């Protein structure tokens, strides 16, 4: 069956030197990204954040269903509600829902149930995964590989925000059902990730973490 419509691919082959130059710059820029938990209350240009969401929404997805929705939250009252609800869940997490090994693994990060960044950051992006679609008649439409698709979109988003000069945190105050309720989302929208966005606080510090060397995270040509 060949009923699908096609258009010519726009693609520019780069000279290899240019490819290397761009790749090194990109690697360097993204290696500088750190999860930030101390935010300045300074405002940020929301038009830039919207452009970053546009980048996220250009991600590939299962059967091109684009199973994502992004809610931009800047209202202080709403941020406070989100903080309070997140802290209720996180208190439970730290007081027993996470097992002792998990708590121990988090020690280098210095996290606890207190989440002031949910109010301090000028902007929160709540990423929703649309578990199924809905047509004009309100009928359910299947979606595919939604976890993978939204994960890729979230990666695009974090990269774009970092390259825009903004700090982010990937936060998952689970279970995250309260986000769908507070943000009045339909049942098919499942909260996937909560991303505070802003500038780091003046005195912001981050854990002293090392990344795995390339040779330990990749291998090549096991048989030649
Ligand atoms: N959601 C909790 C716990 C937490 C879990 C993981 I895995 C982290 O990488 C960091 C934190 C919290 O945000 O504190």
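^ structure tokens above, recovered residues below v
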């Amino acid at each position: 069956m060949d009923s699908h419509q096609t258009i010519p691919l726009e693609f520019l082959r780069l000279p290899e030197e240019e490819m290397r130059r761009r790749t090194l710059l990109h690697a360097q820029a993204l290696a500088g990204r750190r999860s930030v938990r101390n935010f300045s209350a300074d405002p940020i240009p929301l038009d830039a954040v919207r452009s970053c969401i546009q980048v996220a929404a250009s991600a590939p997805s299962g059967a091109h269903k684009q199973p994502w929705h992004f809610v931009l939250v800047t209202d202080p009252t709403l941020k406070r509600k989100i903080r309070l609800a997140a802290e209720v869940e996180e208190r439970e997490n730290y007081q027993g829902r996470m097992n002792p090994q998990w708590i121990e693994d988090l020690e280098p990060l210095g996290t606890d149930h207190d989440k002031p960044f949910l109010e301090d950051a000028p902007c929160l992006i709540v990423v929703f995964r649309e578990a199924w679609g809905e047509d004009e008649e309100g009928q359910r439409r299947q979606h595919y590989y939604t976890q993978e698709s939204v994960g890729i979109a979230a990666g695009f988003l974090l990269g774009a925000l970092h390259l825009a000069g903004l700090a982010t945190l990937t936060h998952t105050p689970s279970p995250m059902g309260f986000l769908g309720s507070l943000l009045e989302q339909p049942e098919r929208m499942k909260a996937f990730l909560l991303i505070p966005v802003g500038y780091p606080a003046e005195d912001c510090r981050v854990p002293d973490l090392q990344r795995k060397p390339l040779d330990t995270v990749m291998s090549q040509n096991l048989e030649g």
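The mean pLDDT is 97.
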